[in-house]
TrEMBL record:
Residues 206-380 form the DotM C-terminal cytoplasmic domain. Pfam families: DotM_C (PF23127). Residues 419-439 are annotated as: Disordered. It comes from the Bacteria. This is IcmP (DotM) protein.
Amino acid sequence: MSQLRDDRDDMLFLWFALLVLIFVVIPALYAAHKGSVNAPLVWLASIQLRVFAPFSEEVRTILERLTEVEPAALTWEQVRGLLRYAGSWMRWPLALLLLLCGCTAIFIGRVGRLVRHFSMKSLLKNNAESFPCLRPVVGRGKYLLSPKSYDSGLWRIARTPVQFALEQELLLNENGEAFTPEQALHNGLADTELPAWGNARLDEDKALAAFQAQLGKPFENYTAMTACRRALAAAFLAYADGDKKGCVAVLDAVSSSYREKRDRATCPVLEQKNFHLNLNRIWERHQSVLSEKSLRIHAAFELPWFMALLCRARKKGVLASSQFLWLRPLDRPLWYALNQCGGRTAWVESLAPWAHYKAEEQAGQALTEPHVALAVTSLKDSLSAQGWLTDIFIPPMFEQSFTPAVEQAEPVSDMVYAAAENDPEYDANDDPSLAEEHY
């Protein structure tokens, strides 16, 4: 109880001291130093009034009187009146300034609402609304950039020559046994300390069989293709015949439909009847392109035929591989066959289509038998250049033979020879058919 009384007494004392300060001390100090207090206030009022002196006779009169008055002779009420009068003039430009600041704030606020901030993930997702071809990779950044995607999954990276050779068991040791990946690679990279480095021999017969299988099935007709290949064939054919919007519409429809679930890629639109009816109409509408020689000479196998169709379509404009990213998890062999079109180096996963395509180009006709010996040679040269193959290969001898040496073998029959650089590069600026088109 006594504590509360003491607190109340302290509060009353503070209030009393404050009243004494306001009504006694401050007035006394002002009276003692009136000139020092009034002088800056009068100077401030005169500075404000000088702005309006050119516009008012009354203001000019007051300024003249202020020059005659001693600041110490003015009372506090007179100083307050002078400041209030100066403020009555200053309020108008200040009000205009506040109005301008308000308008600026409103404008900046409206512009600010139009500015959006994105992270890498949200930017990709937002761009996919305008560019459906990005949808297959939206939300998969962590997987696509992780070590997990190197050697597994739908989006695993392209195989190197040595990875391909090891997976196909094409690299043999001195006893004719296939090297395992553990004997050649460490974390997917070559290791010179492992036994396969510099001691491997390429099983060329098995490599030839592997590339013949890589070439894929023969080209029959449009209806015999898989659903995703029919969609791609119709789109490329439309683009080759000048219907660019129709091509992009088909590719974007499949991109927007792309789904992944439990390590399985699907595009539900490829199963819709109306979508396939539209593909059939596109295919029938642009049949004239199929009769061109650039396509007829590659009509033996599907992969080289698709390569030829894409090259033909690109004569009409840019058709990047990014337009059909969905193809990579759905049809990996076709993806790499198309991705290498226009380049000078082939993926090892599509060496066979590349070799057969080049053979048909040189022969000028469709070749119904696989011509992939050049793929074996390219693989061997690549492995040798990287240091995997031993310089001298002596196969194991299980029994001694005194058979005389056989004359040098004839070249492989499926190799096609032609003069180098007899097929000049295509230049769209010199194409008369493009000059007649109007967009």
